[in-house]
Design a protein that fits this description.
Layout lengths: L3 H11 L7 H9 L1 H9 L9 H9 L8 H8 L2 H12 L7 H36 L3 H21 L7 H7 L16 H11 L8 H17 L3 H10 L2 H7 L7 H25 L4 H11 L19 H4 L6
Helix pairs in contact: 1-3, 1-7, 2-3, 2-7, 3-7, 6-7, 7-8, 7-14, 9-11, 10-11, 14-15
């Protein structure tokens, strides 16, 4: 998964995108908190215990096993996207603008995963061959460096390690909890109804609220000054060449693919939302046009170079 900061910034950029249908774009801008929620919704089940997650990261351990998060990315994400549309049309707990904003963020997440995940997976597999270690750890490193250099270019500095990351950027629900669980939130009921309508083992409101709280803890942890200092220390030209721009790939090309696909996918979703046609024929048209595959290991739309061969490189320790 691209880093959370990437998904959040991507959704924010789309609120200014004139090529999107104006009602959708304006709803995302007015209800930015809900757009952010949609932008990280498929990844929320990864946020279980932040202390364990951070320790595992620093110790270079394999990423935590999060079965429901994997299911959201790999179990018929195309059909889940259509289910999302049918649920987003329903009046009730959330306003129309709030539902549109979540929808915009949600489909922006799908688009970015579909176009960036092949590059992230390639970088992780390359580094297992070159340096050893576990692929899931290298996966997280690739996402981190993509986000770091992307935000440096966009706004002059990394998105993390600053107070705004906690107080604004990672606020994905109104009055986000930090200590006690607020499982009575209307958005928690809406989201759990959405998930239980598609997944047999969907979480209840308490579990969903726990993920929201853990994401709040994540926002706090990575907004601390030492995180910013670490990002400054590691944001070297060597790491930029290794992860971002080099003779084999250019991250800008892959991000542009994701951004362009977001415009296409959000427009398609909004048109289907407004049409209100839930027939099998309408579903099949949407699925064919959306072309949503496995989000964790999607088909590569932009060619990537061949991976280095073990016998050519050998394994060597990370420097």
């Amino acid at each position: 998964m691209p880093a959370a900061a990437m998904h959040l910034t991507h959704a924010e950029l789309l609120t200014q995108e004139g090529a999107l249908p104006s009602p959708l774009r304006e709803a995302m801008a007015r209800e930015l908190v809900y757009a952010r929620l949609g932008a990280v919704l498929p990844d929320l089940p990864f946020y279980t215990n932040i202390v364990t997650m951070m320790l595992g990261y620093w110790l270079e351990m394999p990423a935590e096993n999060c079965p429901f998060a994997q299911k959201m990315h790999r179990y018929h994400p195309d059909l889940f996207a259509w289910h999302f549309l049918t649920e987003a049309r329903k009046d009730g707990l959330l306003t129309r603008d709030q539902r549109l904003a979540i929808m915009g963020g949600f489909f922006s997440h799908f688009a970015l995963d579909l176009e960036l995940h092949p590059l992230v997976n390639w970088c992780a597999r390359r580094d297992v061959i070159l340096y050893g270690g576990h692929e899931s750890h290298h996966h997280r490193l690739a996402e981190k460096y993509h986000s770091l250099f992307f935000h440096r270019e966009l706004q002059g500095d990394d998105a993390i390690g600053v107070r705004r990351f906690f107080t604004e950027k990672t606020v994905i629900v109104e009055k986000p909890p930090f200590f006690r669980l607020h499982h009575e939130m209307p958005v928690a009921r809406w989201a759990t109804d959405l998930l239980s309508g598609f997944f047999q083992d969907a979480p209840g409101m308490r579990q969903f609220a726990a993920w929201i709280r853990s994401f709040r803890h994540f926002g706090f942890m990575v907004s601390l000054p030492w995180v910013h200092g670490n990002a400054q220390r590691l944001g070297t030209d060597a790491n930029r060449e290794r992860y971002y721009v080099n003779g084999e790939f250019d991250f800008h090309d892959h991000f542009k693919d994701g951004y362009d696909r977001s415009i296409k996918l959000l427009t398609l979703a909004y048109d289907a939302f407004e049409a209100g046609d839930e027939s099998e024929e309408a579903r099949n048209r949407f699925l064919a046009a959306a072309d949503i595959s496995d989000l964790a290991y999607p088909c590569t739309t932009r060619p990537l170079p061949a991976l280095p061969a073990y016998e050519e490189t050998g394994l060597r320790a990370v420097g």
